[in-house]
Amino acid sequence: MLRPCQTSSVVSIVESRRIALIVSPWYPVPPTGYGGIELVAYNLARELTAQGHKVTVLGRQGSHGPFETVALAPESWQKDLGNQNGIPRHNLFLYRSYETVRRRSFDVIHDHSGLMGILVASQARLQAPVAATLHGALTEAEGDFLRAVARQVNLVAISHAQQATVAGVEWRAVVHNAIDPNQYRPITNVAEKDDYLIELARINPDKGQHIAIEVAKRLKRRLVLAGKVDPEAQDYFEERIKPNLNGQVVWRENVKGKEKAQLLAKARALIFPIQWEEPFGMAMVEAMVSGTPVIAFRHGAAAELVEPGVTGFLADDVEGMLDAFERLDEIDLKRCAEVAAERFGPARMAEGYMNVYERAIEQAQYSEPPLS
Fold first, then answer.
1. Mean pLDDT of the chain
2. So what CATH class is 181-343?
């Protein structure tokens, strides 16, 4: 029987482990644009490799890095994401992935592919233990599934807020996602910043862009809305966002790379008026690492990520956001960037996962061997 691993537990780390990361058939590792899970996997694989571990990434064609990559899905499959071919494509990717790890020798397998990957892992009877990270929001039905398989797979959450949405699941740990601070150029002198606010998120009512617009108007500040319009949110964009695009409010549909880093670093604050229990919120981390404080609603993982008075402020309503803006001068922007880089850098994430791996390997040694 496996026991949950606490995030504070530190176990002895073997000098070098053979680690397989099963990622996704949809985007390469690292992604060239969209692909948050793939970027997290890349940062983890690169950091583990730098620490001396032998890492193999199983993913889509075009993946690359200072580690071994195994392409199990062609680039052409990306067009099937979201259509009737998507599920069988994903299933074939998982079949190929688990056949690959079955034939080869690994100390641990780390699955990032979602619930179907966890199902396959729970029935695969591999020699090596499997850890699996859940990267999205969880429903009650998904919680029922996770409770059923938690003895076969070492489940990892990306936040305590995500954990709290499903009761009774035997989680092994919480490990926050990481970004590479070297990809950002923090501006920590207020005099070098512009006077605009930014919200970096998909255009969707759950992200609350209409509230960000209200905040900007009441503060008489410019606002940059950076993000694609979700297909199901087209009416929301047409009715509540587009009529406000008037110069004070501007929309940048697809920002990435240096452009995104510059937009974040030059902003006076990132506004995050989230309307749902978001399990993480990478945009908040990206802003804080850029020396840009976050003003966020107190939903989901925001209270875990934002340190009030250090990296931003939490609010319960629009009035609270307005009050928080008036307190931005209390924040030391250099410390904001440094604290975020330390808390959400690849080394911290790799440490958390290595603790999960070592505990899983140790416990697997005392379990019954899998059937051949």
1. 94
2. alpha beta
